[in-house]
Structures are given as structure tokens and as C-alpha cells.
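Work Package 4 report. The design task specified in the project plan requires that, given a folded chain encoded as C-alpha cells, an amino acid be chosen for each position. We show below one input record used in the internal validation round.
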């Protein structure tokens, strides 16, 4: 939730920072405003290559705590400094916590039952939406300093809550701590440590981890029926180079994250208040932003329910198609103004719903599901590195594009991305609902 608060914090402060009454030492320039929303993506690009090493060495729980410390440091800078350069540096430091988007889905997916795995992993995006709501409410109801102190306090609370969590059982088994892994499973599933369910889960996770020391990736063994002699441990890079299913899974994840960024809603989240002022000048931008966050939360809850009921693939395909149509209609309304102002608000909220149900949720669920444990950290890191690069580009060029082409034309660009995403997912996105990781590898072996 705290990541969502600071990620959308520029929306509440952008107008203040560009006004003569700014709380900073001077007014921000247009370039600095672009960096205010996009600097976190640059630091995300820098830190992401180290996320896999951090996850494998510290574990999932302590990785979350370390990345939260970066979030805490950024709030401390914001609450104590008034220089423009310090605020921009705080947003850069905040980006170091962006790896939470990698760690949390992996962490949750490793202790959840397969039948509810999708719903539980998508819950992180619901809490991200709650963070957006809190950020917009604070921006509209609180003064600048109070808003910052509340954000700092919530981050400290998050660190305290994380310290009470148990480590991922899969990570504990990977480092040979079977007893603690059993305690972790019992904790997360409300079972006794001696129960049959805990023993069965330990056995299942152990079978999955056994592939970590094979000489040949799993799909090559199945195709060639190789009987191997003494097994040797492969590095993650070696496994990725040899495993066609891992490469295919990585391609799918990269395309899904590209779709998630270039379908555009993340830009709307960061620049919500000024965007609503431009699109709907007769409606309070604070009220419109709060309603926008509420719609995101409700749509996230709906996606969390549907993801394990009808599957990931249909949601991504039909969600992207509906988002593309919404962007076309919304762009024409902003450009031609053929309807009343309230219709613009309705179309933005409809766009929010279709995006959240599809590209706003599915990539963050698929990425932790499609990789074997021995390559999961590396492959997730590569996919998220690409996502941050795309995010920086979109956030940095958004304001210049709006100024040169107009807001309506920008939504046409988003629509093109939506329709391309629909075509790709129809042909190449496998369904992973309720499947174990080895079963998903079988799906990835198929050409379509």
C-alpha cells in the first residue's frame, strides 16, 4: 500500500510544485516535473539486476524489509527537505523499493495453494490501489507537511508488520531448513505442523526443487528421455540459455509487461489530478481522482475473484480488447468533445476497469507462475527490468506528447498497444489457472 501512496504522490503535489506558492525553494521546471514522475523508474532499472541475488541470499521476507527501508528513506528526505533537487533525489531513492513488484508476487505465490494462487497474488495490486486512494485523499484533505508525515508513519507501520511474517517455505527448503519450512506452511495455512497437509506440501515442494540440480532442463529430459549420471548444478544463466520453456516464458512476460505499461493507466495514476483538470475542468480534480482510485480498487477485487474462476488468458485477451475500445472512444471524446463533461469521467473510469481486470493485474500474476524455481529470480528480474525501462519512457514523454499532440491523440497510441496485446495473447499466452509449475512448463512447450 505504501508503494502506491508514494508512486501517486506526484499527482497531489505537481500543481503545488509548479505554482508561485510552492513549498519548495523554487518552482519546478517542466523537465523537473517530468523527472518527478519518472525518476523512480531509472533507479528501478538500476536496482532490478540485483533483485534476484538479494532474494536468493536474504530470502523473500528480508528482501521486502530491505526494499521497504528505501521507501522509508525517501519519505524521510521528503519530510525534512525543501530543495527541488532533494525532492527529485527522494523519488530516485523511492525507485529502489520498486523491486517489491518482483518480490511480493513471488513471495505470495510460494506459500499459496494452487487453487487460490492467482487471487492471492493479485491482492497486492488491490492494496496498491488502496495506496493510490490514500494518496489522493491526503492530497485533497491535508496540507503538504501533514500528508508527508502520514506517509512516513504508514511506511514505519509496514516495516513492523513485515517483521512478523514468516519466510517463504520454498526458499527455506532451498537452503535446507525443512523444519522452518514446515512451520511456515503451517503458519500461512492455519494448520498444525504435524498435519498431513503440511507433509504433503513439503514433499511437493521438494519434488519441484529436485530439478535444481539436473544437468538438462526439464523439457529436454522429457523429450530426449535422458538418463543422467551424477547431477551437476547449473547456474541460472546456463539454465535459461538451455531451457526453451524458460525462454518462452520470459518472452511472454516481457510482452505482458510491455502491454501493461503502454496501455497507459500507470501514467494516468501518476498524473491523475492535472489530467482530470485538463479533461474535465468543470469537475473537482480531487473528487475525480478519489473516485478513480475507488474504481481501481473495486476493479482489482473483481479481477482477483475472476482470475481463479475463468482464468488468466481470457481476462488478458478480453480486458485488452475492451481497454483498446475504451481508449478510442475516450480519445475521440477528449479531442472532439462530442459529449458532456461527465461522459469523459465515465469513460476514464470504464478505461480504468477494463485495464485493471486485464493488463493491470495479469502480468504480475503470470510472471511468478511460469518459471521453475532455479530460474525464477533471474527471469523475473529481466522481465521487471524491461518493465521499468518502458515505464520511464512512458512517464517521461507523456507530458511532452500531451503538449504536442493533445491528450486525445495520446489515448489513440494507448489503443494501438491494447489491440496488439490482444493479438499476441490470443496466440501465445498459455493458461496457468490451477496448474503446478511443471504442468505450466508443458503448456509452454506448445508452439501456440
Amino acid at each position: 500500500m505504501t508503494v502506491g501512496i508514494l508512486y501517486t504522490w506526484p499527482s497531489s503535489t505537481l500543481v503545488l510544485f509548479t505554482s508561485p506558492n510552492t513549498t519548495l525553494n523554487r518552482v519546478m521546471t517542466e523537465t523537473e516535473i517530468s523527472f518527478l514522475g519518472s525518476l523512480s523508474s531509472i533507479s528501478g532499472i538500476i536496482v532490478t539486476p540485483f533483485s534476484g541475488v538479494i532474494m536468493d541470499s536474504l530470502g523473500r521476507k528480508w528482501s521486502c524489509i530491505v526494499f521497504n527501508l528505501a521507501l522509508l528513506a525517501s519519505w524521510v528526505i521528503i519530510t525534512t527537505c525543501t530543495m527541488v533537487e532533494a525532492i527529485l533525489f527522494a523519488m530516485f531513492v523511492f525507485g529502489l523499493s520498486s523491486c517489491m513488484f518482483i518480490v511480493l508476487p513471488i513471495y505470495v505465490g510460494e506459500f499459496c495453494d494452487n487453487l487460490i494462487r492467482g487471487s492471492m497474488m493479485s491482492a497486492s495490486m488491490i492494496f496498491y490501489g488502496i495506496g493510490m486512494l490514500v494518496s489522493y485523499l491526503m492530497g485533497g484533505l491535508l496540507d503538504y507537511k501533514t500528508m508527508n508525515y502520514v506517509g512516513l508513519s504508514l511506511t514505519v507501520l509496514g516495516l513492523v508488520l513485515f517483521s512478523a511474517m514468516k519466510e517463504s517455505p520454498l526458499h527455506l527448503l532451498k537452503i535446507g531448513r525443512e523444519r522452518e519450512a514446515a512451520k511456515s506452511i503451517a503458519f500461512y495455512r492455519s494448520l498444525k505442523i504435524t498435519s498431513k497437509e503440511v507433509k504433503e506440501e513439503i514433499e511437493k515442494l521438494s519434488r519441484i526443487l529436485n530439478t535444481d540440480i539436473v544437468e538438462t532442463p526439464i523439457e529436454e529430459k522429457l523429450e530426449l528421455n535422458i538418463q543422467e549420471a551424477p547431477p551437476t548444478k547449473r547456474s541460472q544463466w546456463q539454465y535459461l540459455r538451455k531451457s526453451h520453456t524458460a525462454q518462452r516464458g520470459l518472452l511472454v512476460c516481457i510482452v505482458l509487461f510491455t502491454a501493461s505499461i503502454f496501455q497507459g493507466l500507470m501514467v494516468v495514476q501518476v498524473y491523475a489530478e492535472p489530467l482530470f483538470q485538463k479533461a474535465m475542468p468543470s469537475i473537482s480534480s480531487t473528487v475525480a481522482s478519489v473516485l478513480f482510485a475507488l474504481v481501481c480498487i473495486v476493479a482489482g477485487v473483481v479481477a482477483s475473484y475472476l482470475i481463479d474462476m475463468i482464468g488468466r488468458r481470457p481476462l488478458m485477451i478480453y480486458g485488452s480488447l475492451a481497454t483498446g475500445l475504451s481508449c478510442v472512444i475516450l480519445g475521440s471524446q477528449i479531442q472532439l468533445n462530442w459529449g458532456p463533461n461527465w461522459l469523459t469521467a465515465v469513460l476514464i473510469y470504464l478505461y480504468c476497469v477494463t485495464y485493471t481486470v486485464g493488463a493491470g493485474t495479469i502480468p504480475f500474476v503470470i510472471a511468478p507462475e511460469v518459471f521453475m524455481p532455479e530460474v525464477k529470480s533471474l527471469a523475473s528480474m529481466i522481465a521487471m527490468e524491461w518493465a521499468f525501462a518502458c515505464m520511464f519512457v512512458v512517464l517521461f514523454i507523456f507530458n511532452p506528447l500531451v503538449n504536442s499532440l493533445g491528450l486525445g491523440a495520446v489515448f489513440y497510441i494507448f489503443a494501438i498497444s491494447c489491440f496488439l496485446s490482444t493479438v499476441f495473447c490470443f496466440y501465445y499466452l498459455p493458461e496457468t489457472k490451477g496448474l503446478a509449475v511443471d504442468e505450466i512448463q508443458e503448456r509452454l512447450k506448445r508452439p501456440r
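The CA atoms of residues 200 and 206 lie 10 Å apart. Validation will be extended to a larger panel in the next phase.
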